[in-house]
Design brief:
Blueprint: H1 10-31, H2 51-61, E1 65-70, E2 75-80, E3 91-99, E4 104-112, E5 118-123, E6 128-133, H3 138-153, E7 157-162, E8 165-169, H4 173-190
Antiparallel strand pairs: 1-2, 2-3, 3-4, 5-6, 5-7, 7-8
Length: about 190
């Protein structure tokens, strides 16, 4: 009978040892850089509020807001106390919605004495910008506040355009400070 070739020769054993130790070393090194793992939970963390920001808002900033608990929605609504409250003139209020179950915070544009869709006009020293907006989901409200944030901070003059008529909103100093405060508090909640 012919003698069979030996598979695990000393050279192959040396190569296997090198390969195994290099593989284990690479796995060990890459385990230190584990922050780039995939998020497969399906959760949207863009509206997530951490505990310290929520506690700061509830204990320090919430005293400036009128609070409404909506048990049917499972949320608490916060409207700034210095906002314009009119029964006749159209107004647009910024409302912070806190969801304590999911630890999320949302911003909502609450339109009063008018119907959707609306147009917002923002006048700065250099430009006039017009934003079309219809009542949408959380992402659309968040997108609009991100567009308006630099204009609000730059003290732009805002008008609400409804059926060709313009109505000034956030026009006096008290309202401007209230809107700035809501925007600042909302983005601080989201960190």
């Amino acid at each position: 009978m012919a003698q069979s070739d030996q598979v695990l020769t000393p050279e192959v054993v040396k190569l296997l040892k090198i390969f195994i130790f290099l593989s284990l070393g690479l796995v060990l090194i890459l385990s230190f850089f584990n922050s780039y793992r995939a998020n497969n939970t399906g959760e949207d963390k863009s509206y997530r509020v951490n505990d310290s920001n929520r506690l700061y808002f509830m204990n320090v900033r919430a005293i400036h807001y009128d609070r409404q608990v909506r048990r049917d929605a499972g949320m608490t609504l916060f409207r700034h106390g210095k906002r314009l409250q009119s029964d006749a003139q159209p107004s647009l209020d910024l409302v912070i919605l806190l969801n304590p179950v999911k630890d999320d915070a949302y911003i909502y544009f609450e339109l009063k004495n008018a119907d959707w869709p609306i147009r917002l006009s923002a006048k700065t020293d250099k430009d006039v910008l017009v934003f079309d907006f219809s009542n949408g989901n959380n992402d659309e409200h968040f997108g609009l506040i991100q567009k308006l944030k630099p204009l609000i901070q730059a003290n732009a003059e805002f008008e609400l355009i409804l059926d060709g008529k313009t109505f000034p909103i956030w026009s006096n100093e008290m309202e401007k400070e209230a809107v700035k405060s809501v925007v600042e508090d909302y983005f601080r909640l989201l960190n």
